[in-house]
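INFO worker-7 received task bundle
INFO bundle size: 2
INFO processing item 0
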Amino acid sequence: MSMVRAIQSFARRRWVELANIDLRTLALFRVGLAITVLADLITFLPHFSIHLTDAGLFPRSLVLWERSWDAFSIFFISGRYDMTALLFALTALAAIALLFGYRTRLAIVLCWFMIVSLNVRANVFLSSADIQLAVLLFWAMFLPLGARFSIDHALSRKPTRDTQYATLAGLAVLLQETYLYVMGALLKTGEPWRVQFTAVESAVSNVQLKTYFSDFLLQWPEVMKWLTIYVYHLELYCVLFLFFPFFTARLRLLMFVLLASMHVGFYIFLDISFFPLISIVGLTVFIPGFVWDWLGPKMESWADAARLVIYYDEECAFCRKTCLIFRELSIVRSAAIVPAQSDREIHALMQKENSWVVKTPEGGLLLHWDAVAYLWRRSPILWPLGALFLPVFMRPLGRRIYRFIARNRGRFGKFSAEFLRERECVKTRLHPLIAIALLPLMAITFFWNIHNMPTYKNLYVPPGLLLAMNYTGLWQEWRMFAPRPTVSSKWVVVEGKLADGRLVDLLFDRDTAPSHQKPNLGNKALPTRRWQKFFEFFRWENGRNVFGRVFCRRWAERGGPVRLERVTVYEYTQQNNIGMPGADWPVVKTIPVDYACHVPPPTPRPKK
């Protein structure tokens, strides 16, 4: 019996070690997800109308024609600019609520729903970063993201003391993050990864992906060879260290550093949108608790929080909640929050100045906005805000903000009573039925990733499984540079011909003739990375006329004196000089679109 108990105890400890995610780590994960959602929305803004409305390149009719009935999107309810902008604003508000941990569960559900809807609506503009974001948002719905460093936690009457979180939901997101690397490595079956070791050179040679630092790396072919070997084997074997049953926490920290540094390298040498950002955000779930145990006291010591005292009006519930939120988001947990009525001198000062009072470690007393800026400067997290309002010319703005809040304290009190309600605690445990429901979802995700392998491509996939993957946003296929990076560079020119014979650059919206020469950098090849995905996935046979009409209408809306007569798209492809410096490969040109803006009506036949 003692042997059985010992085995059970050992298995339980190993389970906790392998499935555990620290609640403070989940708070960092929450902040990262919120920032990534906002970054995702920002990437659509430069060409919002042309990418996401019915007046653009991919109207809803074309989306529904290609997607059929297998997915749903709230963006299908309208293709107008104002309605689409409203949905974007709703997504941004949900992301901001998630960032600060306000109604965290509702915020993460809204973010997941809106991002999945956006991915369905704009599927020809998507990259692996968008897919990864939707997948992580889905699993994040089952995690207690608001249990630390959040407004929800600040307003909890009984805040949780335990920082460990080991459940199926935690294991699900940990496994999901490893699929990106392991499955991605298994799909890299081409010779550039396994025999020739030229994959990194191929990637940084592509003009669509090149950055200012790519040419520097291209000078070191031997370094690129060893980088190829390193990246491939790091992705392939990282799962062994991330889920090693002994020394798990230390190994996970090591793998976090190695994998995160790999993504930093991707960001420096490859122009791949926000893929490095969402990848590092996903990796944060592997940061062990002992990092926070080591970092927390240092932050408190740096802020000298133990000697900070914040005095508030005891009769003002809004004031107390504001102080609690300030302390929580500033990560200065040891700062004391005390009613001003407990100290006669402080109370008299508060009444005289109509202000809260902050007592500094040196014994000084700060009031009004100066107290706000001081707390921000002492915070390890919010100090940039404090630095922003430190200059003399910014102080009047801060004081106006404070006076406005002080004058309307009654209204803010009613607002806080309705929208900043205190609760017992932030729930960290899943309902048993929800936990059980996670098992088939985890199994489906694993099966789908196995199905993507070339060896198992012929496995039978039930129709309902694909439907579930689409509706949940769990559809995934990690084919970044797999089975091999492309060995050719592609650039696109959208040329317009005016009625007076002049040529204009329609893609970059310039009145000068476009250059047909091979660009040097990715950000010069196309206006944004969304365009690169568009030209990669768009089906010209379905949307050739749509593309032409959109650019003709855009030019007409400018109201220029000379009308646009013709829109022509040129696609150029040239093989990269991999291992063959100085080789002059031919450039292949195709013209998928040649559209006349003003086609004269047919001449009527004379009557007999």
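INFO item 0 finished
INFO processing item 1
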Amino acid sequence: MMNHRLKEIVSRRVLPRVQTPGQYLGGELHAVIKDHHEVRGRLCFATPDTYAIGMSNHGMQVLYQTVNAMPDWLCERVFAPWRDMEDALRREDLPLYSLENFTPLHAFDVIGVTLQYELCYTNLLTILDLGRIPLRSADRKDSDPLVIAGGPCVQNPEPLSAFIDVFVIGDGEETLPALCRRWLELRSRGGSRNEWLRTIAREFPFCYVPRCYRLECTADGTWVRVPQEEAIPKVVTPAVLESFEDFPIVTRPIVPNIEIVQDRIAIEIMRGCPWRCRFCQSTTIKRPLRYRGAERIVEAAWDAYRNTGTNEISLLSLSSSDYPQFDALIRRMRETFVPHGVAISVPSLRVNEQLRTLTELLTSERHSGLTMAPEVALDDMRRQINKRIRNEDLLEGCRHALERGFSRFKLYFLCGLPGEREADLVGIIELAEEISRLGRAVRGKPATVTASVSNFVPKPHTPYQWHPMQTREYFDSAHRFLKCRRRMSSVQVKCHPVESSLLEGVLTRGDFRVADALEQVWRKGCRFDSWTDQLDATTWWHVFEEVGVDVRDILHREREFAEALPWDHIGIRQGRMYLERERQKSVSDMVSVLGGK
């Protein structure tokens, strides 16, 4: 039921004083409005970033549709308010509310949080506090909502373990409804919050409930999580959506009120990746490989287009060009949509021999650019990271793309990988400039090439999780080298901010002790840390020092196989031994690379 009083106050006294008030109003096309009195359960899906970013998250649309398809449940949305909106709500002593019904967050049964990147963690605390939900799980009463979290960042849940009641590991389409129903059943039977959470930990092997594990310090000084009773698993196993091919595709996505970052129809064509790049966390946590049939994808895309009028469709997967029916799919998509002026985008093209013919299937009518991720510039380093691509295929694919009318290329590279040499940095510039010169040979003028360079962070559940991260000094030096080496004005080098990468490293590799620092920096005003102009890195580093978080140990110390890692109680399908074998292979390949420099 709509909270008309709260909506009236917000509309009259708050929204006239904030930027982009449309993001706080709701009422979008295809938003689902249900009466709270006509359902048994209420979930609010929280994205700890702005509306413009959160509404670009395809996973949000999927889970929103999934829960609202349950006749006895509703799902509403909330996003992190920008600083002016937060200040206004606090000034007026108003709670943060859901967009659909202006319901304060504390009135929901469950708050579901998606954690897509680590630098959104302070925004999560803002959402909880403004929603009048106690920050820490230990302080919540029986009447408070269950706070659950999923997404890539839960691969190391420990930095948020003080604030989240339940972490859901793996796919959420089937697990989220099951968990919501069970929570409601447990509360209806009476008892205490502790008892309900213990039941969740026992019954759902894909759920990590921090309060059901105790902390033990090992002989080498590292901390490990140990179940408090035998019925609770030592290692939490990820949930897998086996019915991916048949699971409903979103064909009535919410159409945003304002411009968002990715304003397009998104269709997930494949989940998982057939490759085993050693730097990539997604290739381990998204297995097994599953895909949908081409005709079903085309039909769903057509329904979504008719329901929204959106003039771009994005085919999503970790490596879209590895989709088994890719050629047939693209041809069918073009036949269906190009006559209607709808562009087809493929955001994750793999650089292999297929790229030579792939551009014939794509169109430059709307977008004249292609985005690819060679990761490194030299073939021998690619063998070390297990990225099985060749510059020969990349260059030939770019040539074909230029002939088809493409004129801009964006290439993603990594800086700071184990065993990186000066030659690898030189290779980034030389490869980018060679592609630009191809433009002159084919089209009579240089192609525009952007080399986007990210700083490598060794992520949990990858073969590089034992490796140290490079230092601030190394990254600063490498960035200067890259920018000084560039000679062509048609080539741009964009390097990811070093401070952001280092902070990401602490938040993705740290243990439970990071939680105290996180709360302190939030109380000191840190918000929207993924935004370069908002990040206050100095405050973060000072607070880490104050609370005793050893940043150098977390980031720059190499681990041994025998050492416990903060995320060892979170499992992957392949198991830890797979990661150990791949790490040993990478070291062997690295020796080969360095020996040949």
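INFO item 1 finished
INFO post-check item 1: The mean pLDDT is 94.
INFO post-check item 1: The chain has two domains: 4-227, 265-496+567-595.
INFO worker-7 idle
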